[in-house]
Automatic annotation (TrEMBL):
Limits of the Nucleotidyl transferase domain: 30-292
Keywords: ATP-binding, Carbohydrate metabolism, Glycogen biosynthesis, Glycogen metabolism, Nucleotide-binding, Nucleotidyltransferase, Transferase
Site location (Could play a key role in the communication between the regulatory and the substrate sites): 82, 120
Gene Ontology molecular function terms on file: ATP binding; glucose-1-phosphate adenylyltransferase activity
Enzyme type, top EC level: transferase
Name of the gene this protein is made from: glgC
Protein's name according to its UniProt entry: Glucose-1-phosphate adenylyltransferase
Cited function: Involved in the biosynthesis of ADP-glucose, a building block required for the elongation reactions to produce glycogen. Catalyzes the reaction between ATP and alpha-D-glucose 1-phosphate (G1P) to produce pyrophosphate and ADP-Glc.
Subunit-structure text: Homotetramer.
UniProt superkingdom: Bacteria
Binding annotation for alpha-D-glucose 1-phosphate: 121, 186, 201-202, 219
């Protein structure tokens, strides 16, 4: 397509702005599924929903799909909540209330409230079904369904444009993943045009990509629906007493037999290769994805001014590093340190510190992710750990050097990462999670 075609195509912006911000995105309602417990994260989600989990030094996981919506020009968003949603609700209210209702822009919280049935949300499809009256009230042309617990940057406008161009009833965003790991996802088989021919939730033998026996197409949990088609499928599914009321398990496998369901490969717009996407659903994955950000040129660029990640954070002073004695030097090397932190004569190496972390004299932190409001006592050692919000590591405590001792007090993952929470330290909770 040449520049003249781009300039006159109603689906696109002028060539100087390649984003697909258009009447299509303005006619789209996004629904973020943010009610999940995230049980694989263990006690990290004991008091918070997975989408409310802090990530990247100052953000929460929910900020990534919300920011993608804003950057894509989608300004009508519903956030569906259920499990221990207090901190998630507070975060959205504080950080995402800048849209103007006068312009029909909003981020609405949609808690499970038994609007249509007498049960809580029973599955992803049921969660949307129970808000049908609200969706109808907004009268969107397209409905974009998003998982609220993944880390990625994506222009949803491009996907919606492809959905319209292909004449699809539904479009499913997909990733290329190794076949051995594809068993954890919904896996698609497509024809040459990208039409989905099979969809299997967590298969034992994932279908390979044609010509690439070691790769499979996995669903991202990102779907575009024509609105009327969505209504019809949700109502039909709600009447099916044998259904689990889930998009991946029930609706997609059924509709591919009779309707046009297309796959949308999620690719890097510059290289054409697989774009960055992380499911931080385990402590090992969460730890690894956070520490990836410390690298010189990480795949996820949080300093990208063209695609900023928005969030709410307290107004905090800059990080401070104090004392420069031989045995008491406040320093951080190969690390990310957020506002409000004080490194008071301790050493931090290859670690990520969220806001308001205090590292006392002669303490040593290495290869660790330290969530907000943590205090590391004098002479303490913390290695290869995830330390939850509000923890007070006692003076001289050693974490991450002896797996057997760690396992007696804390949770140790298969990858050897130690999870430390206030409860494990015998503390009472005083923080909003």
């Amino acid at each position: 397509m040449n520049d003249h075609q781009r300039a006159t195509d109603p689906l696109r912006e002028p060539p100087e702005n390649p984003r697909f911000v258009s009447r299509l995105t303005k006619e789209t309602l996004a629904l973020i599924m943010a009610g999940g417990r995230g049980s694989r994260l263990g006690r990290l989600t004991l008091w918070r929903a997975k989408p409310a989990t802090p990530f990247g030094g100052k953000f929460r996981i929910i900020d990534f799909p919300l920011s993608n919506c804003m950057n894509s020009g989608i300004r009508r968003v519903g956030v569906l909540t259920q499990y221990k949603a207090h901190s998630l609700i507070r975060h959205v209210q504080k950080g995402w209330n800048f849209l103007r209702g006068e312009f029909n822009e909003f981020v609405e919280l949609l808690p499970a409230q038994q609007r249509i049935t007498t049960s809580w949300y029973q599955g992803t499809a049921d969660a949307v079904y129970q808000n049908l009256d609200i969706i109808r009230g907004h009268n969107p042309q397209f409905v974009l369904i998003l998982a609220g617990d993944h880390i990625y940057k994506m222009d949803y406008g491009a996907m919606i444009a492809r959905h319209v161009e292909s004449g699809a009833d539904m479009t499913v965003a997909c990733l290329e993943v190794p076949r051995e790991t594809a068993k954890a996802y919904g896996v698609m088989a497509t024809d040459e045009s990208g039409r989905v021919e099979r969809f299997t939730e967590k298969p034992e033998e994932p279908d390979p990509v044609p010509g690439r026996e070691d790769v499979a197409l996995a669903s991202m949990g990102v779907y575009v629906f024509n609105t009327q088609f969505l209504y019809e499928q949700l109502i039909q599914d709600a009447d099916d007493t044998y259904s689990a009321h889930d998009f991946g398990k029930d609706i997609i496998p059924r509709v591919i037999e009779t309707h046009q369901v297309m796959a949308y490969p999620f690719r890097d717009t510059e290289t054409g290769g697989q774009a960055y996407w992380r499911d931080v659903g385990t402590i090992d994955a969460f730890w690894s994805a956070n520490l990836e950000l410390i690298g010189v040129t990480p795949e996820l660029n949080l300093y990208d001014q063209d695609w900023p990640i928005w969030t709410y954070q307290e107004q905090l002073p800059p990080a401070k590093f104090i004392f420069d004695d031989e045995d008491r030097r406040g320093m951080a090397v190969d690390s990310m340190v957020s506002g409000g932190c004080i490194i008071s004569g301790g050493v931090v190496r290859h670690s990520l510190l969220f806001s308001n972390v205090y590292v006392h004299a002669r303490a040593y932190v290495k290869d660790s992710v330290i969530l907000p409001d943590v205090e590391v006592g004098a002479g303490a050692v913390v290695k290869r750990a995830v330390v939850d919000r509000g923890c007070r590591i006692p003076e001289g405590m050693v974490i991450g050097e002896d797996p057997e001792i760690d396992a007696e007090r804390f949770d140790v993952t298969p990858g050897g990462v130690v999870l430390v929470t206030p409860e494990m330290l015998g503390m009472e909770l005083h923080h909003v999670r």
